[in-house]
Amino acid sequence: MSLAGKNVIVTGAASGIGLATAQRFARDGANVGVWDLNDEGAQRTAAELKALGVKALGSRVDVSNRQHVNAAVERFHTEIGPVNILVNNAGITLFQPFMETTEDMWDRVMTINLKSMLVCTQAVLPDMLAAQWGRIINVSSSSAQSGSARMTAYAASKGGVIGFTKALAQELAATGITVNNVPPGFVDTPMLRGEGIAGLGASVDAIAARSPMGRAGRPENMAAAIAFLASDDADYITGHTLNVNGGRYSS
User: Fold this and answer.
1) N or C: which end of the chain has fewer CB within 10 A?
2) 108/122 Cα distance (integer angstroms)
3) Could you give the residue numbers annotated as active site?
4) What is the bridge-based pairing of β-strands 134-139 and 177-182?
5) Which residues of the chain have pLDDT under 50?
6) Structural contact between residues 112 and 64, judged by C-beta atoms closer than 8 angstroms
7) Does residue 69 sit within a domain?
8) What range defines the domain where residue 27 resides?
């Protein structure tokens, strides 16, 4: 699939699914805005993408902060151009028994995982409306579909992402803009092996071995689905939840 000349912003693109997605878009010919709180990682990723012959811009962005986001979009406009595609990928996880989940924990998860959908999408939507073409792809989670013990706040936030996707897709359906989401299953990422490992109760490899396919997903599996939803091949798909989970959850 060629996305040559399209301008893409990927949030949380310094590692994991976001990094694989940024790499996939660059290989498909798109120019990429690499957003992440990890500025060093964002700059490193942008440099790698430029070596593929596309424009790339690394920015340190708090995706829940409207001033951060608006400033990053303005810089993107100046150095690359209008935004055609937005991948709302940035997020955090939380493994915590429900009765030990504090309001501060809850608010942090909701702010980063769900409020960011509002802030980032509102910032780039005018570009898409002006062009009468756009793609918004949100990364949700299979935990919101099947439930997951000790992940109530996380699952609730990602359930909100799925609802956000469906509602906005309806609102924008006649504008040439599609809105879809990809809920990853058990994907081997630095976040999972870092923050997640303490909450899993077993090793990543042991849990992956119990899955229907007997292995964890790779970030590249998610990136392929996201790239498809961004392509013209998916121009009649909107409000859709594209499961990429190795059979963990079927719908």
Assistant:
1) C
2) 20
3) 154
4) parallel
5) 196
6) yes
7) yes
8) 7-187+218-234
Strand partners, 76: none
The vertex-14 CA angle with 69 and 107, nearest 5°, equals 55
Put the strands of the sheet holding 177-182 in their side by side order.
Answer: 56-60, 31-36, 7-11, 85-88, 134-139, 177-182
Query: Residue 136's closest CA among 122, 119, 121, 158?
Result: 121
End-to-end, the C-alpha distance of the chain in Å comes to 26
175, 224 contact by CB (below 8 A) = no
Give the C-alpha separation, 13 to 207, whole Å: 26
Under a CB-based contact definition with an 8 Å cutoff, are residues 90 and 11 in contact? yes
**Distance of alpha carbon 156 from alpha carbon 75, whole angstroms:** 33
Evaluate whether 55 touches 4 at the Cβ level (below 8 Å).
Answer: no
Amino acid identity of 8? V
CA–CA gap between residue 146 and residue 240 (Å, rounded): 17
12's tokens:
């949380």
**Helical packing angle, 16-27 and 219-230, nearest 10°:** 50
Q: What is the pLDDT of residue 245?
A: 82
Q: How many domains does the chain have?
A: 1
- Output the six-digit token pair for 235: 């121009």
Answer whether 135's CB lies under 8 Å from 178's CB: yes
Q: Give the DSSP H or E segment for 159.
A: helix 152-172
Structure tokens at 21: 């997605």
pLDDT at res. 95: 92
CB 103, CB 160: distance < 8 Å? no
Full-prediction pTM beyond 0.70?
Answer: yes
Within a domain: 1? no
* Token couple for 147: 């439930």
Contacts of 66 (CB under 8 A, 6+ apart): 119, 123
